[in-house]
Design brief:
Elements: H1 2-24, E1 29-32, E2 37-39, H2 53-80, H3 90-118, E3 127-130, H4 132-157
Antiparallel strand pairs: 1-2, 1-3
């Protein structure tokens, strides 16, 4: 199943890139009012005292964990394309497990961040809304799910030697 493996590698690479961009940029939430400001996962200076640190730390941790899981998934997909470096059929299986772990980690991070920000009381003069980095985090979660599904298809479609080859 070369097409599944190639598409899984593409989806995994795009998911990894989008999660790294989402983690590293400061446009998760934008506030418009008398002055406008934007904020990300890594608050600077005076912003730390204004934010409940718990949900930010959970979101940071699970986003970084998702990026690491996806790096492992992409690595095993790359290794599965090189027959001399991988065990037959094992690369897509490991990639499936780690891609689904990345999707679950990103889902937890995004759900925690969304629920905390959604539940905050609005300020009468300031309008806040989610911005592109936030949505890129959700896109990376969907890409990790696609990577897992395509890797599973690649694993199930590979020919494994049976009794007839002995």
């Amino acid at each position: 199943m070369e097409p599944c493996r190639s598409l899984a590698l593409l989806a995994g690479s795009l998911g990894l890139a989008s999660s790294l961009v989402a983690i590293s940029t400061d446009f998760w939430i934008v506030a418009m009012g008398p002055t406008s400001a934007h904020s990300g996962l890594w608050p600077r200076g005076g912003q730390e005292g204004q934010i409940k640190a718990g949900y930010i730390h959970v979101t940071q941790s699970f986003c970084v964990l998702a990026a690491l899981w996806s790096l492992v998934a992409v690595g095993f997909l790359v290794l599965s394309c090189i027959p001399s470096l991988s065990a037959p059929g094992r690369g897509p299986l490991v990639s499936t497990i780690t891609a689904f772990a990345a999707a679950l980690s990103m889902l937890v991070a995004m759900a925690v961040y969304t629920s905390e920000r959604w539940g905050q009381a609005p300020h009468p003069q300031v309008q806040t809304f989610f911005c592109w980095s936030f949505y890129l985090g959700w896109v990376s979660m969907v890409l990790f799910l696609c990577t897992g599904a395509l890797s599973l298809g690649a694993h199930c479609g590979t020919h494994r030697p049976g009794y007839e080859t002995l």
